[in-house]
């Protein structure tokens, strides 16, 4: 179970990017995090895997506090958090298998990692997972010879090799065509259920969020303003999250014609 309470993040002296966020995700729940560009979605995921240090608040993964961890403790905690990226983050010149086994780096010794002598059990698990997502036949191919969808499957398997207790996906489909995006969303949904893994997905595509997740969390200006089932994500909720002008709350709303390009949401539909 992931329990976030009163999470606040401020970069430097700037206004907080996340303010007093509370979120609990249990079991095999798949949660979409939606919000306009700059709402704080990536910052939230980065606070969970501690790529950024929360300013205050608590993040517990199965009862263990993640905030404030350092050194070896932080490295151990990070092993339990799988991450899938928009740009896949594969090492192009390495094979699919080598990329997948990189998910075990937190568990093997430096000698095993450098000499690529991974335990047999890791190799077997890698094949099982690659078979599960239909990329086993590419095991020896270079990662850069794969299509985007295949590369994202490698990214997913690498994250699962960590035996994570939660899976975070930051815009996992944003670089993929619509059909491949849907396949990846479907895959994340099935894996969550097969592996009893909570999955949090930052996503701009609201229609995919509604179809492939069971809960939608909407952020606006770093505050959670919607938390509910896709069926309850009405046009009012959509307007509250994306609508109008992305002005700070204490500023008067600008007329629609003056909407600034950088404030527009990324393809919310
Ligand atoms: N390392 C950083 N230093 C300073 N400000 C940052 C940093 N990372 C993000 N921000 C700021 O925090 C705010 C939230 O950014 P974040 O990337 O979390 O939003 P997002 O909702 O994920 O946006 P997008 O959908 O465009 O990825 C933005 O105003 C951004 O400029």
TrEMBL record:
Any idea which GO molecular function terms this record carries? ABC-type phosphonate transporter activity; ATP binding; ATP hydrolysis activity
Region (Disordered), start-end ranges: 247-269
The record ties this protein, via SUPFAM superfamilies, to: P-loop containing nucleoside triphosphate hydrolases
What sequence ranges are listed for the domain ABC transporter? 2-246
Its membrane topology is listed as: Peripheral membrane protein
- Keyword Hydrolase on this protein? no
Write down a Pfam family by its short name. Answer: ABC_tran
State the UniProt keywords alphabetically: ATP-binding, Cell membrane, Membrane, Nucleotide-binding, Translocase, Transport
Give me the Gene Ontology terms describing cellular component.
plasma membrane
Biased composition, class Basic and acidic residues, residue ranges: 260-269
- Location in or out of the cell: Cell inner membrane
Q: What is the protein's given name?
A: ABC-type transport system ATP-binding protein
Gene encoding this polypeptide?
phnC
């Amino acid at each position: 179970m992931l329990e976030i309470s009163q999470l606040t993040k401020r970069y430097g002296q700037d206004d907080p990017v996340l303010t007093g966020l509370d979120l609990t995700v249990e079991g095999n729940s798949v949660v979409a995090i939606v919000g306009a560009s700059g709402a704080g979605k990536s910052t939230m995921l980065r606070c969970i895997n501690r790529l950024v240090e929360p300013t205050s608040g608590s993040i517990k993964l199965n009862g263990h506090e993640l905030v404030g961890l350092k050194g070896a403790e932080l490295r151990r905690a990070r092993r339990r958090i799988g991450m899938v990226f928009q740009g896949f983050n594969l090492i192009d010149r390495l094979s699919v298998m080598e990329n997948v086994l990189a998910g075990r780096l937190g568990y093997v010794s430096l000698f095993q990692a450098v000499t690529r002598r991974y335990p047999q059990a890791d190799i077997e698990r890698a094949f099982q997972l690659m078979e599960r997502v239909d990329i086993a036949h590419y095991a020896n191919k270079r990662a850069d010879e794969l299509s985007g969808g295949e590369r994202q499957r490698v990214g997913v398997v690498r994250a699962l090799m960590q035996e994570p207790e939660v899976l975070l996906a930051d815009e996992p489909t944003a670089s993929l065509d619509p059909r491949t995006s849907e396949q990846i969303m479907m895959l994340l949904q099935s894996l969550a259920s097969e592996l009893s893994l909570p999955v949090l997905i930052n996503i701009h595509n609201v229609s995919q969020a509604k179809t492939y997740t069971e809960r939608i969390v909407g952020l606006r200006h770093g505050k959670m303003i919607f938390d509910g089932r896709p069926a309850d994500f009405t046009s009012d909720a959509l307007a509250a999250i994306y609508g109008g002008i992305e002005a700070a709350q204490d500023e008067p709303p600008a007329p629609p014609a003056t909407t600034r390009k950088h404030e527009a949401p990324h393809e919310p539909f």
